[in-house]
Every structure is written in C-alpha cells, then in structure tokens.
Amino acid sequence: TAADVLLWRNKKISSSVLAVATAAWVFFEWLDYHFLTIVSFVLVLGMVVQFGWSSFAGMLNGSPSNVPRLELPEELFANIGVAVGAQVNKFLGSLQDVSCGRDLKQFLMVVAGFIVTAFIGSWFSLITVIYIGFVCAHTLPVFYERYHDQVDEVLYNMLGLIGSQYQKLDKGVLSKMPKGNLKFRKSQ
C-alpha cells in the first residue's frame, strides 16, 4: 500500500520510488530536458524497438510477426478525470468556506500560507517544489515514526512561540479592528 511505501516497510520499493523521482528531477532540472522531449524520445525508442521486432521476426520466421497491441482502458482515464475533478472541487469549496466564513484567524492563516507559497515558488521551479514535496512525503513519516518524542517537543515549543506572537498581534492590531458585518449604505 501507499502507507507501506511512505513508511519504508519494503525498503526496495520505497528506495526505487525515490530513485525514479530523483532521476526525473535530474532530467528536468539539471539536464534541462522538457517533458515533451522525454515523451518524444520514449515514443521514438518504442517505435524503433517494435519496427526492429516486426522486421527481424519476419526475416527469421518467414512470416510477419504479430506485435502485441498496447491499449489502455478508457475507464482508466475517466476514473482519473473524475478523481481529479472531485479533489479540485473539494479544494475550491474549502477555499470558499474559509473566505465566506467569519473566522478571521483561519482566513488570515490561509492567506499567509498562500503568500508564503508564492514567495517560496519564486525561488524554485514547479518541478523542484513537487520534488521537494515528494521527498518530504517519503522521509518525514519515517523520521517522525523514529523520533516522534523529540519532534513533538520541538513542534510544541514552536507552536507556543507562534501562539505568543499571535497574542501580541491580536492585542496590538487585530483587537482594534472593527468587528461585525459591514453594511454599505445605498447612495441616493
């Protein structure tokens, strides 16, 4: 299962997944390959292998070889589309709930998260951000499983520090902001 891969229960599979992700990142970032270039090269290689197979098999056997067809089921693409659409709609719905809700703290945290994401995104390319997330998803669960006591202590200290800073912000700035619904008057 995915949890077994992320928690390194089977070290061969987990290391293989991480190695493939690293190889893909190296191709895209360090070697400056583009996705379309790699797909084109893989398709050319596949066509050359099939051409060679069918040509040489026909020469050796005297009859043309029957190369097996590669077909992906249509349900696969329909299921992927439905799953992606459901996740995007869920994400957009949660964003709308936060923006239309009355919880200023949650709203500000989400806005700050997007600003931090945009700031970090200006440092790295999208593929690097995805790779960093992938590596974190494959290393942090194992790290936490082994050192959860120490990690919890550090996180509680950080949350306490953030909480005290928020209290100062709330006391100095947020508490002075007007509360309640803002109603606009109709101009006459």
From TrEMBL:
Name of the protein this chain belongs to: Reticulon-like protein
One Pfam entry name: Reticulon
Annotated source species: Aegilops tauschii subsp. strangulata
Origin: domain of life: Eukaryota
TM region positions: 12-28, 35-56, 107-134
Reticulon domain ranges (all copies): 2-188
UniProt-listed GO biological process terms: response to bacterium
Keyword list, A-Z: Endoplasmic reticulum, Membrane, Transmembrane, Transmembrane helix
InterPro entries the record matches: Reticulon, Reticulon-like
Keyword Transmembrane helix included in the entry's annotation: yes
Keyword Phosphoprotein: no
GO CC annotations, alphabetized: endoplasmic reticulum membrane
Mode of membrane association: Multi-pass membrane protein
Main localization, broad class: endoplasmic reticulum
Subcellular location: Endoplasmic reticulum membrane
